[in-house]
Amino acid sequence: xxxxxxxxLRSVLGSVLGSALIGLSxxxxxxxxxxxxxxxxxxxxxxxxxxxxxxxxxxxxxxxxENYRAILRNDGSVEIVxxxxxxxxxxxxxxxxxxxxxxAATTVDQLEAPADLDLQQxxxxxxxxxxxxxxxxxxxxxxxxxxxxxxxxxxxxxELEEVPGVVKIARSCDCPGMRDNLITxxxxxxPL
Length: 192
Description:
The protein is of the alpha+beta class. It contains 4 helices and 11 strands.
C-alpha cells in the first residue's frame, strides 16, 4: 500500500523538483536526498489570513490561505496544497518514501476547447466527475460547476477573454465538502 501511494503521488505530480515552485523562496539551498521514510507533519490547517496568488497564464487572481503553497507542475497546471502536504510532496520528489494518506488540493489547469462545442458541451465531454453540472457565475463570467456524487471533488470550468481555451479549477480531497469549498474560493477570487 505504501509503495502504491508513493508511486501514484510521484506519477500525479511528476518531478516536483523539475518544476518551478511558486511562492518558494529562491534563496533556499537544495536539501540532501532523503533516506528512508519522509517525516509527515500531517495536514497543517489553513491560516486565518489570506494572500493573493496571481496566475497570469490562467487569467486568475486566487485568494488562498497565506500559508498554502502553490506548485507549478510539469504539465503546466498549478496545484495548491497546505504546508504539511507540500513538505511531504517535496520529500517524495527527492526520493523519500511515505506512508499512505490522502490530501486536499486545488488544481488550476487550461484546456484547449474545440470550436465546434460550446462550453457546457465541452464540460460534459471532458469532466471525469460523474455528478451534477450546473451554470455558475464568476465575477461576471458564466462558467459551469461540476460536483461529484460523493462531494469529494468539484470543478469549475470557465472561458476567460484573456486566456485561450478553457480554465478549470478543481478541488479534491478524500473528504466531503469540496463543492462548498470551491464556491468559497471562487467568491474570494477574480479574473485578472
